[in-house]
Specification:
- The chain has one domain: OB fold (Dihydrolipoamide Acetyltransferase, E2P) (Beta Barrel), CATH 2.40.50.
- It contains 2 helices and 9 strands, in the order αββββββαβββ.
- The protein has a 4-stranded mixed sheet, with helices on one face.
- A hairpin with a 3-residue loop joins β2 and β3.
- It is globular, with a radius of gyration of 14 Å.
- The two termini are about 25 Å apart.
């Protein structure tokens, strides 16, 4: 329960929305390599996780998720997404992205099933070193 409150607090910094718990929701810490605004979507490409770290790209239904994208039809949501992604790149703070496993609704705006998911929530994560 403590991690949910912490993630909610982190997400509130970037988006101003609360995270509801979803049975199939997954969180991923993304270090953005690229932020792009295309004709129908804004997307973030996440850096590959370091080789010696636990895990790799998130895997959803057998596919490695490299991109997270939002439709440009919701201009406020897309604007916040791009803003938080740019803050992530300039500040060096990784993004925390919550997505729903098996949600392919992003295909409507060219977020490919094979490597892209629609974020349900996103924010910045501050890493701290405890002395």
């Amino acid at each position: 329960m403590r991690w949910i409150r912490r993630l909610r607090r982190v997400t509130l910094i970037g988006t101003g929305l609360a995270i509801s718990s979803t049975a199939l929701a997954a969180d991923y810490i993304c270090v953005p390599l690229e932020v792009s605004v295309l004709s129908n979507r804004a997307h973030v490409e996440c850096a590959a996780p370091a080789g010696k770290t636990r895990g790799g790209y998130p895997v959803d239904t057998g596919h490695s998720i490299v991109y997270f994208a939002v439709p440009l039809t919701d201009t406020a949501w897309a604007g916040r997404f791009v803003h938080v992604a740019n803050l992530s790149i300039t500040s060096g703070m990784p993004m925390v992205i919550r997505y729903v496993s098996g949600d392919y609704s992003g295909e409507a705006y060219s977020c490919a099933r094979a490597n892209c998911r629609k974020p349900e929530a996103y924010g910045l994560r501050r890493t701290a070193h405890v002395p």
